[in-house]
Specification:
The structure holds two protein chains of two kinds. By secondary structure, chain A is an alpha/beta fold. Chain A has ten helices and eleven strands. The chains are: A alpha/beta, B alpha/beta.
Chain lengths: 263, 197
């Protein structure tokens, strides 16, 4: 049995976790390594760290952040945000990341995916796809999603499903699929998008965007055929712990990895 | 000194980190002559079977590895480092393995998503020193497209498409298909069992 993975996401800016952290149990709610430690203890299956620093100075702190987060972490760590070259990926992997996520740079230069996969192996390459639903001309038409880049500001006109299949062929090891329509709404994942992509690929698909309630996770696993689900604020605010979410999912018949602390 | 074998492609950094975290002196070893003074050897593998065997041969590691395997020095193979102990792999039929375990490593079939990426449970088949204190059904982290068939030395199994060897143990030789360095507390416990031998 393969467990469905729950992946908390740390959005980091200038070495600090942003996007409203409100952990009463932490000394310093914005410290990425402290938060990583909490999530690890609660049973996170993996961690994703996305750098959203806009400045060069902010980016320079990323290596230090990755190093500090990875030091005492023994679950997979994916790092993304601004990865544009083989050298960027090499530095992140050297600092302790297990996988790097590429997004805009892959769309602009698909050969980068192939280059990264042949240098580091597919298991180290996650392609992040931000998708936005296209309005249908009539109700008969199948749903379509376009790839958007630069944090959702540019519509590339590229079909998200076709792009996902293309990067699989180029050697991507996993897809991190974010619905730009659902992101930030807390109204649930886009299960239709997730299922369309996941059921057409042989590599795992991580669903992202829209998590607000435990029911949303059950939905994206059972209806959306997601292999993993990523969320940030639902965990940061201690609305739901990873453990309580997994206990809920297990009751719904979703296979999850529950850990006990006696071991 | 705990030698972590570096042939240029494995996930050496995270294995070193785990061993050092547990308080043991670990060193990255990229020359075969350094293996002889190791108390224990860990062989983490990753990537393609043919590329691994070619790199081992190019760096003259094959003879040193055979010596270690025969010498009684505790040896732990991880992922592709487990597969290397079989006679051959379907991933690269022209590159023979080390032939410690009989049989051929085969491609995962019977399931839609390959590679097998993520956390799966261990079925512990028989008592072993490596898995001592690990509860049956514990989850460990996998990332592989090829699997090791059952042999007399298999100690634990996992089911994904088919049932395959998750861990093996024969004298001084230990091997796991999963990644203990990415398997949280369960993985650290397995490393500690090996390091305390």
């Amino acid at each position: 049995m393969l467990a469905k993975r729950i992946i908390p996401c740390l959005d980091c800016k200038d070495g600090r976790v942003v996007k409203g952290i409100q952990f009463v149990s932490l000394r310093d709610a914005g410290d990425p390594s402290e938060l990583a430690e909490v999530y690890n203890r609660e049973g996170a299956d993996e961690l994703v760290l996305l750098d959203i620093s806009a400045s060069r100075e902010g980016r320079a702190t990323l290596m230090d952040t990755v190093h500090r987060v990875a030091r005492q972490l023994f679950i997979p760590l994916t790092v993304g945000g601004g990865v544009r070259t083989l050298e960027d990926a090499l530095r992140l992997l050297g600092a302790g990341a297990d996988k790097v996520a590429v997004n805009t740079a892959a769309v602009e230069n698909p050969a980068l995916v192939e280059e990264l996969a042949s240098r580091f192996g597919s298991q180290a390459i996650v392609v992040a796809i931000d998708a936005r639903r296209q309005s249908a001309q009539n109700s008969e038409e199948p749903a379509r999603w376009n790839v958007v880049t630069y944090g959702g500001t540019q519509d590339t006109g590229i079909d998200a499903l076709g792009w996902a299949q293309r990067v699989e062929g180029l050697g991507a090891g996993e897809i991190l699929l974010t619905s730009m329509d659902a992101d930030g709404t807390k109204n649930g994942f886009d299960c239709e998008l997730t299922a369309a992509v996941s059921q057409s690929m042989h590599i795992p698909v991580i669903a992202s965007g829209g998590a607000g309630e435990p029911e949303h996770f059950a939905d994206v696993f059972l209806r959306g055929a997601a292999d993993a689900a990523l969320a940030a604020s639902i965990f940061h605010f201690e609305e739901h712990t990873i453990r309580s979410l997994k206990e809920y999912l297990e009751k719904q018949g979703v296979p999850v990895r529950l850990i006990n602390h006696e071991a | 000194m705990i030698a972590v074998l570096d042939y240029g492609a494995g996930n050496v950094g995270s294995v070193l980190k785990a061993v050092q975290y547990l308080g043991y002196p670990a060193e990255r070893v990229d020359r075969p002559e350094l293996l002889a003074r190791a108390e224990k050897v860990i062989f983490p593998g990753q990537g393609h079977f043919a590329a691994m065997m070619t790199a081992l041969r190019a760096r003259c590691f094959l003879g040193a590895l055979r010596d270690i395997l025969q010498s009684g020095t505790p040896f732990l193979g991880i992922c592709l480092g487990f597969q290397a102990l079989y006679e051959a792999s379907d991933e690269a039929p022209e590159s023979p393995g080390l032939g410690i375990f009989s049989g051929r490593v085969q491609r995962l079939t019977g399931i839609f998503k390959v590679p097998h990426v993520g956390w799966s449970q261990l079925e512990i088949e028989r008592p072993s020193r490596l898995l001592s204190g690990i509860a049956p059904g514990s989850f460990v982290y996998y990332c592989h497209s090829y699997y090791c068939p059952a042999t007399h030395e298999s100690a634990a199994f996992t089911e994904y498409g088919q049932r395959f060897a998750a861990a093996a143990e024969a004298g001084n030789i230990f091997a796991v298909q999963f990644h203990p360095e990415k398997s949280g507390d369960v993985g650290l416990k397995i490393f500690r069992n090996f390091l305390e031998l």
